[in-house]
């Protein structure tokens, strides 16, 4: 039983690694969208696009036997982080500060 558990957990770790790699790839692409939007003075949020994505996530969740609420909740958090990053790209300097905004990486180091 211990061996089986170890095998299954190794598989979980491998899948988690893939999910994180894919997430990093998604953020790399959305960063480019953010730069494009900043360059053309477009708003960070596109509510119409997000509504279409929401429907797609629900359909894909059902097609894959997953709870649509779980999947849409995960993407809500991811998209909220993207939009925050876009906001930072559009407003590169914090008011009253000569320092550039800290990257999200720095925030992660706080305790
Ligand atoms: C990436 C974009 O910007 C925002 C982030 C989105 C996302 O992470 O999928 C979707 C819509 C926008 O609110 C975009 O407009 O495509």
Automatic annotation (TrEMBL):
Which GO terms of the molecular function aspect are on file?
chorismate mutase activity
Identify the SUPFAM superfamilies for this entry.
Chorismate mutase II
Entry's Gene3D superfamilies? Chorismate mutase
Q: Which GO terms describe its biological process?
A: chorismate metabolic process; salicylic acid biosynthetic process
Q: Which domain of life is it from?
A: Bacteria
**Region annotation (Disordered) ranges:** 87-111
List the InterPro entries hit by this protein, alphabetically. Chorismate_II_sf (IPR036263), Chorismate_mutase-related (IPR051331), CM_dom_sf (IPR036979), CM_II_prokaryot (IPR002701)
Task: Give every Chorismate mutase domain span.
Answer: 1-90
Kindly state which keywords UniProt assigns to this record, in alphabetical order. Isomerase
Answer yes or no on keyword Isomerase: yes
EC number(s) from the headed UniProt entry: 5.4.99.5
Q: What is this protein called?
A: chorismate mutase
Which organism is the protein's source? Thiomonas delicata (Thiomonas cuprina)
List the top taxonomic levels of the source: Bacteria, Pseudomonadati, Pseudomonadota, Betaproteobacteria, Burkholderiales
């Amino acid at each position: 039983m211990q061996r089986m558990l170890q095998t299954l957990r190794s598989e979980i770790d491998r899948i988690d690694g893939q999910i994180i790699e894919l997430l990093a790839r998604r953020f790399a692409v959305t960063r480019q969208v953010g730069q494009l939007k900043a360059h053309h003075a477009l708003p960070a949020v596109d509510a119409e696009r997000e509504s279409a994505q929401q429907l797609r996530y629900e359909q894909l969740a059902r097609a894959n036997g997953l709870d649509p609420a779980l999947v849409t909740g995960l993407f809500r958090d991811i998209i909220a982080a993207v939009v925050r990053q876009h906001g930072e790209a559009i407003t590169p300097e914090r008011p009253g500060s000569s320092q550039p905004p800290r990257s999200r990486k720095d925030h992660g180091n706080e305790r």
